[in-house]
Amino acid sequence: MACSVADSGFLFLASKKRPIHSTRITQVASSGTGTYFLKWESLPQIRSKQKSCLISLRKTNVVRAVAVPIAPSPLDSAEDRKQLSEMYGFRQIGEPLPHKVTMKDITETLPKKVFEIDNGKALKSVLISVTSYTLGLFMIAKAPWYLLPLAWAWTGTAVTGFFVIGHDCAHKSFSKNKFLEDIIGTLAFLPLIYPYEPWRFKHDRHHAKTNMLHEDTAWQPVWKEEFDSVPALRKAIIFGYGPFRPWMSIAHWWLCHFNLKKFRPNEINRVKISLGCVFAFMAIGWPLIIWKTGIIGWIKFWLMPWLGYHFWMSTFTMVHHTAPHIPFKNSDEWNAAQAQLNGTVHCDYPSWIEVLCHDINVHIPHHISPRIPSYNLRAAHQSLQQNWGKYLNEASWNWRLMKTILTICHVYDKEQNYVAFDEVVPEEAQPITFLKKVMPDYA
């Protein structure tokens, strides 16, 4: 049988020459030859169910054991964390947060001012998004065909700012007027044809169950059993979690927000109102665009920026919570503080992206408390760096970071966190091997 001795860092495989189910360790000794000796002490006298005999009290036996070293977690060593950071494209991988630390402990270190709602700053966010989106539409209208991709990239990023405004409204961190928040949130989501209330309900559960297996409503790893059970869909799954992953939020949008069966009875009425608003926008807005600009105009002015928005929606989501060293855990093993502080990533992007997207990339403080408005996230992150800096995962957006996520973080594994598709089904993983070959490795 085997038993663990925590202080020694070894696993001891004890001899089965004598029963040891009624003993306890009192001493660990080494012979100096690599062989370890465990001193076992019998527990109080008990009667065996199999044999009518007594085990004598205070009887001491020496049991010979072989010491087998157990490798420590790679996150426990500063040198290992540094090597993993370079390998995965991170600036820093945080050391494990102690189990005793709670969300309350972390939240109490944040200055009270970061929770303050400022209607003036909220209005500034709206003006930035409206102005940048209008400029983007003007660029699309005037740009020659060869500059259209740049215009679409700008406009798709600008309209992502609308999503962030609606996101703050859903968290009740945008305005002091809560009814106004719901109106602004609904309107901000309309150009994205995203139903506000269904998204709000799902997103609240994501915050409550971040990186919890089965429960997190954002992206889950692929389940090996399900992957094996649908051979006809394997290639689609591989493409979805590989080269098409920067647009996987489209599938999430469609599958998770329009089915009334996915919501609780007390949520249904608000869900129906949001769905009605989205369908009304589609029924009125799309025909107007087509009437004025034609089908090509609908593609130019709406579809391409919408695809640009989903690129950022997918990229932000996977970068925030997906890395080979960040685990998904079952509910009985899950720790809120570890998931929110240790399991969330801060990532720096080019400044124009951060401005247009209202600092949604400053994501760790948002998971410590969703009540922090987007315009206060940077101040909150500075506080976290001062008080909890060694536990933070931080990166700058780079090719190696994206390559790591797209080519490694696929199938759930309890021990390794993720196993890549090309290890599970190498004969079907051509999209992943292709990405490994063509994606740059710059960090």
From TrEMBL:
It is found in: Membrane. This is Omega-6 fatty acid desaturase, chloroplastic-like isoform X1. PANTHER family: OMEGA-6 FATTY ACID DESATURASE, CHLOROPLASTIC. It comes from Nicotiana tabacum. The chain crosses the membrane at residues 146-166, 271-289, 295-312. Residues 144-391 form the Fatty acid desaturase domain. It comes from the Eukaryota. One of its GO terms (biological process) is lipid metabolic process. Keywords: Membrane, Oxidoreductase, Transmembrane, Transmembrane helix. GO terms for molecular function: omega-6 fatty acid desaturase activity. Belongs to the fatty acid desaturase type 1 family. One of its GO terms (cellular component) is membrane. Pfam families: FA_desaturase.
